[in-house]
Amino acid sequence: MGGVHPLQLLLLGLLATVAAVAGLARRLSISYPIVLVITGLLCSLLPHVPKIPLPPDVVFLVFLPPLLYAAAWQTSWREFRFNLVSISMLAVGLVFFTAFGVALTAHFFMPGFDWKLGFLLGAVVSPTDAVAATSIARRVGMPQRIVDILEGESLVNDATGLLAMEFGLQMIVSGRTPTIGHGVVQFLWLVAGGTAIGLLVGLAVWWFENWVDDGPVEIAVSIIVPYAGYLAGDEVHASGVIAVVVCGLFLSGKSSTFFSPRVRLQTLAVWDALEFLLNGLVFILIGLQLPYVLAGLEGVSRWHLAAYGLVFSAVLIALRIVWMYPGARIAWVIRTKLLHQSYEMPGARGVFVLGWTGMRGVVALAAAISLPYTVNGGGAFPQRSLIVFLTFSVILVTLVLQGLSLPALIRRLRLDGADGPQCEEGEARRILLRTAIDFLKEGREQHSDGERHAYDDLLHEYEHKLEEVEECGPEATAGDPQAVTMRGLLLKTVRRERQELISLQRSGRVSDSVLRTLERELDLSESRLLS
Questions:
Q1: Measured between alpha carbons, how far is 95 from 368 in angstroms, rounded to an integer?
Q2: What band does 520 get if pLDDT is binned at 50, 70 and 90?
Q3: Does residue 420 carry a pLDDT above 60?
Q4: Contact at 8 Å (CB) between 267 and 213?
Q5: Higher model confidence: residue 141 or residue 254?
């Protein structure tokens, strides 16, 4: 047997660092992507830390499909469809506005950039990060209506950003400028082809899931699905990103019909851990890319580089905010006048926060690194190293500066607080409990007196639960002294049961398998009380 391979030690060290740093971030109440990027950046400055590259193929073929799929799975299809116009204004309109905006302004503050290089640079940095935006938004208590639009934007704009980048590459590498007609046709095929592929893969998986009920098999299939959708979309030259998103949205909506309760719990637990590890590795690897980002820039002063990065980041943030106000107005007109939706015009504070939440991530960096080194004819690709550096700078500034400032900004603008879903939850709980009560009352009348005691006991329990449900769900019960007392009493009771169960196992009166079975039931009860 040989010794431990250095790559194994490196991977183990990265995973341990991700776990430790993310744990620290949670204790500090800071979103862990921010802390992981800073940690990676600081580690890259240490003398004996190995340099770890981040090849674009690894990002696009290993990390991106499952992360997009997980994000799509957690996205509400109802809210995505309802906000589709607003999402499109950001995922399509803002992407090209950013690309053209940078094309028109880049030569003012960066030497050697013409409008074509500026367009390419704007396209590279236009997509926001699906993980960073939503994880930070949820952590800081942003209103759900804003989170819904951010989720939808970050799911779709990868595809439009990569399309705009392809147009930029055609202009620089081959010298051809795509026509508007060609661009529209290509965009429509990316969306239509990706949607069709995503639905086909989703339908195939739906059929299979209705046929099998086996936790390990279904978990394995769920991990394969995003890669199958992405590669199939890419194979027909459509958008693999759109295929994964559509497939995730479709299967998420159908999962209540094909997942058994046991398999659902297992699958969600596995995906929670997988998503966390992939996210953690991505963000710490972003920070570790500093040596590669600085490669090829030896002749440029570090002060000049810092100035370029800060000015470009400021321009990019300003372009997003400038777009937000007319974009929000146009979306409101389309949604209310043409689609006749019941939709209020967003307030200026909400629009500003939506504009401020434009964090970039690994897709932008991978796109920059994937730029070719030469153009047609063998010449060097112009300003490639500077484009990679500027992309890295934008990721750091938007993720760290905007991410850390969001909690204070939301409190300052008084946008923190619960909305819609909590009241929906309270209403749904009441409907379910009343349905159960009606079912038990009907069953009680159809059975003999000896069997009615069981129905009476359950009826009493459900009626008591119905009395505890407040107008807007669990959040509203927090201030009810009786509800707080009852919840605390139940929690103490479950924990006392757990102590007795452990005592029984240690004394040898129950086996480990019995311990695990009963412990799982107690875990579910306690997690419901703590949620």
A1: 16
A2: confident
A3: no
A4: no
A5: 254
| Mean pLDDT in residue range 86-112 | 91
Q: What are the Cα distances from residue 347, in Å, to 89, 354, 407, 473?
A: 17, 11, 18, 26
Place of tokens 């640079």: 121
Is residue 161 scored above 80 in pLDDT?
yes
What is the mean pLDDT of the segment spanning 190-197? Answer: 94
pLDDT the model gives residue 423: 64
Can you list the alpha helix ranges (DSSP code H) found in 469-506? 474-477, 481-506
pTM of the predicted structure, to 2 decimals: 0.86
77/117 Cα distance (integer angstroms) = 37
Q: Which amino acid is located at 325 in the chain? A: Y
Residue 54 and residue 59: Cα distance in Å, rounded? 7
Taking the alpha carbons at both ends of the chain, their separation in whole angstroms is 48
Burial class (CB in 10 A: 0-12, 13-18, 19+), 294: middle
pLDDT at 50 over 60: yes
What's the helix, strand, coil split of the chain in %, to 5?
80, 0, 20
Q: Kindly report the CA angle at 351 between 346 and 353, in degrees rounded to 5?
A: 135
Residue 374, SS3 per DSSP: strand
Write out the DSSP string of 452-476: HHHHHHHHHHHHHHHHH--TTTHHH
How far, CA to CA in Å, does 198 sit from each of 61, 64, 203, 231, 251? 16, 15, 9, 11, 10
Tokens at 321, concatenated: 């905010």
CA dist 287 → 3, 45, 361 (Å): 29, 10, 11
CA-to-CA dists, residue 130 to 13, 65, 90, 148, 266, angstroms: 26, 12, 13, 12, 24
Contacts from 55-61 at CB under 8 Å and sequence distance 24+? 55/369, 56/366, 56/367, 56/369, 56/370, 59/282, 59/362, 59/363, 59/365, 59/366, 60/366, 61/227, 61/230, 61/231
Average pLDDT, the chain: 85
**Of 184, 171, 190, which is closest to residue 120 (Cα–Cα)?**
171
What single-letter amino acid sits at 45? Answer: L
Q: Are 376 and 173 in contact (CB under 8 A)?
A: yes
**CA nearest to 145, candidates 77, 79, 71:** 79
Distance between alpha carbon 377 and the CA centroid of its chain, in Å?
A: 41
pLDDT at 1 exceeding the cut of 80? no
For residues 75 and 155, the answer to whether their CB atoms sit within 8 Å is: yes
Mean pLDDT to the nearest integer, 100-124: 90
Q: Are the C-beta atoms of residues 332 and 73 closer than 8 Å to each other?
A: no
- 129 backbone dihedrals φ, ψ, rounded to 5°: -90, 125
**Residue 176 CA: distances (Å) to CA of 170, 173, 182, 504:** 6, 8, 12, 77
Tokens encoding 19: 């776990």
